[in-house]
Amino acid sequence: IPVEVTAAELESIRVNPSTETVAEGTTVQYTATGVFTDGSTTAINQDVSWSSADTGIARIEPNGLADTIGVGATVINATTQGITGSANLEVTDAIPVLLEITPASSPPLLVGQSRQYRAQLTYSDGETAVVTSQVVWRVEPSGIATATSVPGLIQAVAQGVGEVVARLDFTAFSKSNAVLEARVPLEVGSF
Q1: Sheet with 19-23, side-by-side order of all strands
Q2: CB burial of residue 46 (10 Å; 0-12, 13-18, 19+)
Q3: Any bridge partners for residue 30, and if so which?
Q4: Which DSSP string do the residues of the chain spell out, in sequence order?
Q5: Least confident range of 65-69, 95-99, 129-133, 152-156
Q6: What average pLDDT does this structure show over 112-128?
Q7: Separation CA 187–CA 191 (nearest Å)
Q8: Burial track 135-164 (b if 16+ CB lie within 10 A, e otherwise)
C-alpha cells in the first residue's frame, strides 16, 4: 500500500518575548519560532516580516530588534506565509541611566582655591538634564577639599589626591529606585 508523505506545514508562529515592559529609549530583541503541523518547531527569524502596530511607540528592524521611541502599548507582529504571530510591548517613561560630572579632568587646585563642577543626567531615551543642584556632592577623602553650600562648588583645604563624588537618589522624585554616582579625580597642591 503506497504511503503518501506530505511535508509539514507552518501552523503558527510564536514570538518571544511574548510580553515585555521596558523604558523608552531601550531596545528589545524579538525572535520568531515556527510551529509546524507535525509538532516540530524551528527558528524562522530570517523568514518573517516584522512590524509594529504603533510605530510612534516602537519601530522594529528586519532582524527583530525593536527600538522604543514613545510611551504606551503596541503589538509586535511576525508574519510569513499568511500566518502572523504577535507579542505585546509596553513602553514606560524613560529612566535615568548615567550621571556625569564635568569637568571630568582638570589641573590641580591649590589650597584655598575652589572649582565649580556640573552634574548631568542622561535618560534611556537620550534626553539629558543638568542636575547640579539635585545631587549630593562630597569629596573623598574629605580632608583635602569640601563641598561648599553652593551646589557643585568644591574648595581645596589640604594637599592630596582624591575624588569629587556626585550622588543622585531617584527614590525622592522618580518611579525609579536607582541611585547613580559619578566620580572625577581631584588633586590639591600647595603654593
Answers
A1: 19-23, 83-92, 72-80, 49-52
A2: exposed
A3: none
A4: ---------EEEEEEESSEEEEETT-EEE-EEEEEETTS-EEE-TTTSEEEES-TTTEEE-TTSEEEE-SSEEEEEEEEETTEEEEEEEEEE---EEEEEEESSS-PPEETT-EEE-EEEEEETTS-EEE-TTTSEEEEESTTTEEE-SSTTEEEE-SSEEEEEEEEEEGGGTSS---EEEEEEEEEEE--
A5: 95-99
A6: 93
A7: 13
A8: bebebeeeebbbbeeebbebbbbebbebbb
b vs e for 67-78, b when ≥16 Cβ sit within 10 Å of the residue's Cβ?
ebeeeeebbbbb
pLDDT score of 14: 97
Contact between 120 and 100 (Cβ < 8 Å)? yes
Q: Is the pLDDT of residue 133 over 70?
A: yes
pLDDT, tens digit (0-9, with 9 covering 90-100), for 164-174: 999 998 765 55
